[in-house]
Amino acid sequence: MKRENYSILDRLFNLDRIFNMAIYCGAFIVSTIAISFISKPQYQSTPEEEVRKTALNYVEAFYEGDTAKLAASMSKNVHRYGCNKTGESKYTGESMSFKEVLDYSLSVKARRPFSNNTPKNVEILDMQNQTACAKLTVWWGTDYVLLVKENEKWVIRVDLWHSHPD
User: Fold this and answer.
1) E strands along 19-119, which residues?
2) Which one is predicted more confidently, 9 or 112?
3) What pLDDT shows up at residue 137?
């Protein structure tokens, strides 16, 4: 039904039309803001951050005795080999499989309590798109780890370690 009697303001400014336009504009602005928040991409870490986090998880897993964290940071085909000082000047080589590394991490946690000051430094030495090399400085000595991307996830494939010479 059409209004017959328009007020002077209605005739001058067509208030119904202005009111409807304001509602549509407000709805458009709110929709645009909502869509921008929804479609905003989440932060994606850099490959360097992913490699550093994998290496740090590996070290912390020994400190915490966390076999789940350790398993997540290593390839199932990991090869860990190290030189452990056994005497005054004698070193013994020691090789470990994936399962042996997991078992060993539990014994490390049981034997040695760790503090927040325990060293766990990660230095990335080289990065490619599918491989990386890092140096880990930890309480037992130094590890050089080779990482590979398996199923879009960085994992340690080789760990060559050396106990502190002291």
Assistant:
1) 74-85, 91-96
2) 112
3) 94
The distance of Cα 153 from the centroid of its chain, to the nearest Å, equals: 10
Give how far Cα 148 sits from Cα of 2, 72, 96, 124, 152, Å.
Answer: 75, 13, 18, 13, 9
Other CB atoms within 10 A of residue 110 CB: 9
Query: So what CATH class is 47-163?
Result: alpha beta
Out of 25-29, 70-74, 103-107, least confident range: 25-29
20/74 Cα distance (integer angstroms): 62
Average pLDDT over residues 129-143: 94
What global pTM score does this model have? 0.70
Beta carbons within 10 angstroms of residue 155's beta carbon = 20
Q: What is the widest separation between alpha-carbon atoms in the chain?
A: 109
Domains of the chain, by residue range, sit at 8-39, 47-163
